[in-house]
Amino acid sequence: MPVTSRESIEKARRYLTLLMLSGVFFGLVFSPPFLSIGLIGLVILGLLDPIKGLNPRWRKEIGATLRSPFFWAMASLYLLLLAGVWQTEDWGYYTERMRIKVPLLALPLIWAGLPDLSGREGGWLLGGFVLFMAAVLSAVMVNYALHFEEISLMIRQGKAMPVPRNHIRFSLLVALATLLSAAAYRRKVFGLGRGWLILGGLLFVGQHFLAVRSGLAGAYAGIGVLILLVAWEGGRWWPAVVALLGLTLLPVLAYVAVPSFRTKIQYARYELFHRNPAEDTGDYSDEGRLTSIRLGLQVWREYPLLGVGPGNLQQEMDARYAIAMPGTEGKRPHNQFVSALAGSGLLGGIISLGAFFLLGWAGIRRRTPVYLAVWTVFFLSCLVENTLETSAGVTMFCVFLLLMISRPPPPENSMIG
Questions:
Q1: 340 and 80 Cβ atoms separated by less than 8 Å
Q2: What does the alpha-carbon distance between residue 294 and residue 280 come to, in Å, rounded to a whole number?
Q3: How far apart are CA 148 and CA 273, in angstroms?
Q4: 73 near 362, Cβ under 8 Å?
Q5: 144 with 42: CB under 8 angstroms?
Q6: Buried b vs exposed e over 198-235: b needs ≥16 C-beta within 10 Å?
Q7: Residue range 221-239: mean pLDDT, rounded
Q8: Do 238 and 246 contact (CB within 8 A), yes or no?
Q9: Other beta carbons less than 10 A from residue 389's beta carbon
Q10: DSSP letter at 111?
């Protein structure tokens, strides 16, 4: 087979796509350079072709992409940023936002040019991610066991368990791996059968040891959505009721049995009801989050229609913190939708919420419950974090939603996948 034949090129594109996505997964956990290389590689693979110049598949599908509500829902979150250029005063912050958020436009635009990953190779990718996260989480748990006293003291002081790079992002990735284990089970990846469900359960248990509340909330909500949709598919509600009751009781069991989970809950209670807000300097404390949201809403009330400008949000929040809490470093609102309201006003808030609900509706139309579970994780994350204000957060959001929505509709008698 000639190296320059169409079949050879498409085969190379398929395996290079798997390689780039694997690099993205590795980069999300360990290495920003891997993340950047993987994203750039995906754009090149989706858009370009060594013989035709432009990828023939992309040229064929671009019309359908531009007619897709899914594309416009995701791209609108970037176009909203571009629409605020006329308000911008802080150009350094604005250009940084443009760079960080460009996958919201680029990835859905070129995704149709990438190989179809609904078959065996896509299953390898999902299963590989689940196994990768299980291995990393196991290493984290071993480290916790070896340094139990030191790490327990850190958690009592409001710090996070040591994990690769960022504890919130790592916890979200574990939550996603928990849900994707159901997709791996449905696709019968590697012939592991129910082993995927067992592995997903172990990942979920591990979440309680990490004790990152945003990740735990996302995992619980995503699993709840998955349980309900599977019950709806099969018309058998009693197993779902039992599963949901067990899910409701699990935090109580974790509080009794998992020291890090219990300590985190106790610390949160102390912080919310006993700690002096003026003493807060933590980036992830509950009081700090609530203060950032309160000041963000204050900005929106003063600039209700069009906001202060997405490029000016950081300097505006710095000024608010300097007045409200002198000596405390300014933070952006720990809520993606409040950030949209403060930066782009009521219009921005409506567009952001509308984009999220349109993305959710895409999953309902295609009857893809794992996609909807993943969407739930991101929606809840955006309620308590600036998920789409970091390159890792934007990448997770785009890649995992695109991977799960790009599958063809499942058979009528199956909704897991």
A1: yes
A2: 15
A3: 28
A4: yes
A5: no
A6: ebbeebbbbbbbbbbbbbbbbbbbbbbbbbbbbbebee
A7: 86
A8: no
A9: 19
A10: G
Token duo for residue 336? 């993606």
380 CB-near residues (< 8 Å, 6+ apart): 214, 217, 218, 221
* C-alpha pair distances (Å), 223 with each of 44, 171, 175, 228, 342: 35, 15, 9, 9, 32
Which residues sit opposite 49 in a β-bridge?
Answer: 53
pLDDT in tens, 161-209: 999 989 999 999 999 999 999 999 988 898 888 999 999 999 999 999 9
Is the model's pTM score more than 0.85? yes
| Cα 48 from Cα 44, distance rounded (Å) | 6
User: One-letter amino acid identity for 161?
Assistant: M
- Cα four-point dihedral sign 341, 344, 347, 351: negative
Q: What is the DSSP letter of 280?
A: -
Give 128's contacts (C-beta < 8 A, 6+ positions apart): 22, 25
CA 90/CA 312 separation, integer angstroms = 6
End-to-end Cα spacing for the chain: 36
State both tokens at 97: 């936002």
The amino acid at 234? G
Compute the distance between CA of residue 359 and CA of residue 400 in angstroms, rounded to an integer. Answer: 12
| Residues ≥6 apart with Cβ < 8 Å to 164 | 29, 30, 136, 140, 170
Tokens representing 13 are 């594109």
3-state secondary structure of 53: strand
Residue 47 has pLDDT above 90, yes or no: yes
d(C-alpha 401, C-alpha 179), whole Å? 12
Decide: 90 and 73 in contact? Cβ < 8 Å. no
